[in-house]
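Field: sequence (string)
Field: structure_tokens (string)

Example rows 1 and 2, in order.
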Amino acid sequence: MVVLTNYLVVGSILFVLGIIGFMTRRNLITMMLSAELMLHGVSLNLVAFSNFHQNFQGQAFTAFILTVAACEAGIALALILTLYHRTKSLDINFWSHLGEADIESSHEEEPAVPAAVPAQEFPHLTPAGRRPNLVKMPPV
């Protein structure tokens, strides 16, 4: 029978390798894979504790973690693809200078208070049916 410590050690190693990969690499795809590695290390520890305590709470948390990891991977890859088309590089140092070159930051041209917009007249629906009889109640 395998001891709980073995699973925790493997999960911790995966987590530490993910942190090292995230902190040392400059390639965004490698950084995203390192973040996934950290999530899987945590998932392994949760399943190990769940098995040790004979309940399903750790496995339920792992299902949520895997769902979040899948959503994060899809959004991150879409962002990476979009930014790659702009810079033609996956190096994160090139992406720190992204911005719109056409826009000038002159705040003097903009008025401090926007001009008042005239109230718009909306069409009214015709009443349908009878109007209710409103009886005024004496004040209490």
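Row 2 begins here:
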Amino acid sequence: MKQLKHLLIYDFILLQRNKIIGISLAVTILYTGAFQGLATLGDMEKLLILVIFNDPALLGFLFVGVMVLFEKNENTLQALAVSPMEIQWYIFSKASALTLISLFCCFAMAFATKGFDFQYIHYAFASILTTYLFSFIGFMVVAGESVFNTYILKALGVILLLSTPFLGYFEVLPTVWFVLFPTQPAIDLYQISFEKNTDNEHIIYTYTLLIFWTMASYFGALKLMKKNLSI
């Protein structure tokens, strides 16, 4: 835990140095202003879920890549490979730092749009687990990369693929087609957050599936990062 504490402090410094915290807050302010301006048009729930889903996706996925590539170029990862620092704390620290930022931004957008009319616990878990999920997948994608442009191309492709369950959410295609996508339970849990009554079996199923995919992506990230660092 001592390693995690030092890494978290370092990661927040790194996030601030790379303007990621400022960018996240600026984007959140723009979104909240837009939602308040559009509130008179009616129910914005579907659009809200789409936008909120993108916040953990961009924070957890793209910014993990930016941070890891920065540290590769600074030879930080090479130093990590020969240090007593455990790679799982490195992964968990970055994911946790981004999750804290994402949680603040997601709640700011929800309060701006829905006021206090939503289920905070489900919403918090949806934001936390989704950010961790995308962070770990981000580690999996960036593990073998050293060039930013190549990573961005791969990252955008993966994000587009993981966002396809929204075709079911917006009733373009049957939702059943996307049951095995790791992002489908994340979308479902956000939707549950804004519903008054939801079947308990559906809630348990959604949590179980989302936790499963988050854990699976963590072990995938851990394996690929260890392989990349040869530790």
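free_text_note (row 2): The two ends are 20 Å apart (CA to CA).
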